[in-house]
């Protein structure tokens, strides 16, 4: 149950006479009943006309009864009985495909919403949206509906409102509010129940599955251009925007422009358009899904991420690709983003319990996996290559990934390095390394990464070392270090950019032949039972 009062009569009369649809009239009268907007267009028009006709014969308040939900199959066609009584804005056009602009001398599109609250509230359009959703084959248990409106709607709305204000002033009547029910809000009141019924799931503002419709109206595209002259500061080019006339820029300009300046450039009330809006795009998008695990890398010829230099690929695969290709196929995602707790060089193996990683799967069609299905997916990754192995593969939240990134700088890492020296060594020559604890290093950005990292001197710690003699020119060194330590540079010194280094400690030239990561001490993601 909702009501219009005597003070609304001039507003209804003015807007009806200038080509405004019934639902926009309710918005301008600040009617907040959701059920009333869902009432069939034909019935709303008759009720408004009855409200005007019987205004002097009834009490000051006339209630519009909307106790029963509207019949969604009711549709006003050109030849329907009673259409002649609906004034020049009452007929609802029937589009051929449900989202095309329609032009006909018999059709009068609302001069404010440009047909959004007319044709695009009808069951045919709702079914078209749902067909698009169902054909996209997404998994979802709820949805959030979003709509993008042409920016010129805000200009037309302002013009209509100024007309209402002028009419009320002329009649010497007060205008209680200077705001109306937003078009998007009214549209969602109407469309949500229909979408929910067709899709079989509830609308939920917090849902990760989004159904969006983008509307455009080419006929009136230039109607907001005068604002760029009146308020140039509001319209600044942006790299990711095709036009400076965005909805927010137009709203900002409308807030700044004076009433008299606006009326010099735009008709009040706004003229009736010849065509409906176009529904340019009907899109679906699922919120990202995050998968985490730990990987071992057994190859000394495999980069963590694709190795491309000057547009040319250097190696055929990478850790990232060997893992993600299976996840992309199973989750049916559009794209992915790979991250990990640190990274190893192409010629470095990662052993032990592996390196934590996480993959963000963007816009996945499939989002629900059982623990057994994740185990099978992990096995498929491991069976596909002998270069890597994955463990503890699991679904995680976006927030949980923060624990992995925290560990990058705070935790320790253990390495095993095979070292060569130019001068012969004996066991006793390297034994003293075992006694060194918490060795402080000053590491200037290595030459090999200077092209992608800023020049800086970083202080790092070697917590412990344990040497393993092999022969007079080779030994293996096991190190536990602060995360972020450049191990190769600690061995050979990087032309004196890392001090001290193994060469300077042994007083001879040293170089690294092999390096393995033996452990990354980040307690994430949780270990899973086999």
Automatic annotation (TrEMBL):
SUPFAM superfamilies, per database record: Pseudouridine synthase
Protein name per UniProt: tRNA pseudouridine synthase Pus10
Subcellular location: Cytoplasm; Mitochondrion; Nucleus
UniProt EC number: 5.4.99.25
Keywords: Coiled coil, Cytoplasm, Isomerase, Metal-binding, Mitochondrion, Nucleus, tRNA processing, Zinc
Residue intervals of the Pus10-like C-terminal domain: 290-521
GO biological process per UniProt: tRNA pseudouridine synthesis
EC category name: isomerase
Family: Belongs to the pseudouridine synthase Pus10 family.
Domain Pus10 N-terminal eukaryotes: 110-284
Coiled-coil region: none
Short name of one Pfam family: Pus10_N_euk
Main location: cytoplasm
Reaction catalysis annotation: uridine(55) in tRNA = pseudouridine(55) in tRNA; uridine(54) in tRNA = pseudouridine(54) in tRNA
Gene3D superfamilies: 1.10.10.2050, 3.30.70.2510, 3.30.70.3190
GO MF assignments: metal ion binding; RNA binding; tRNA pseudouridine(55) synthase activity
Entry GO terms, CC: mitochondrion; nucleus
